[in-house]
Amino acid sequence: MEIKVQKLSDEELKEMGVFNWSIWTKEVSRFDWSYDSVEECLLLEGQVTVETKDGKSVSFGKGDFVTFPKGLSCTWNVHKPVKKHYNFK
After folding, report:
1. What are the DSSP E strand ranges found in the chain?
2. pLDDT at residue 6 above 90?
3. Using an 8 Å Cβ cutoff, are 50 and 57 in contact?
4. Largest alpha-carbon pair distance within the chain?
5. pLDDT tens per residue across span 18-28
6. Which of 1, 25, 61, 65 is 20 to 30 A (C-alpha) from 47?
């Protein structure tokens, strides 16, 4: 299961309706999380490292578009407070 991090243009983001998605915020913290469905999100602020159960880690931050696969279990390490648009598929 792979976490996909990419940079999308404003045009691509608008086409997808990202700027109309709900917003989630989180302070600096560390917590476990599991995904029951695919999540797509755009980080507006923050810096995060996510560690998967198989020992891999993925870092992302402001401006990154991130896709988390269904069934993923991981630990979020929020280094700088996060503000993101998100959508579950």
Report:
1. 4-6, 22-26, 29-34, 39-52, 57-61, 65-68, 73-88
2. yes
3. yes
4. 35
5. 999 999 999 99
6. 1
Strand partners, 86: 22, 41
Q: 4-88 adopts what CATH topology?
A: Jelly Rolls (2.60.120)
Please name the residues in contact with 88: beta carbons below 8 A apart, sequence gap of 6 or more: 37, 38, 39
Q: Characterize 30-46 residue by residue with b for buried, 16 or more Cβ atoms within 10 angstroms of its Cβ, and e for exposed.
A: eeeeebeeebbbbbeeb
Annotated domain spans of the chain: 4-88
DSSP H helices, the chain, are 10-16
Residue for token digits 């755009």? Answer: 42
Give the number of other CB atoms < 10 A from CB of residue 49: 15
According to DSSP, the residues that pair with 73 across neighbouring strands are 34
**Nearest partner of 30 among 4, 57, 6, judged by Cα:** 57
CA–CA separation, 11 and 69 (whole Å): 24
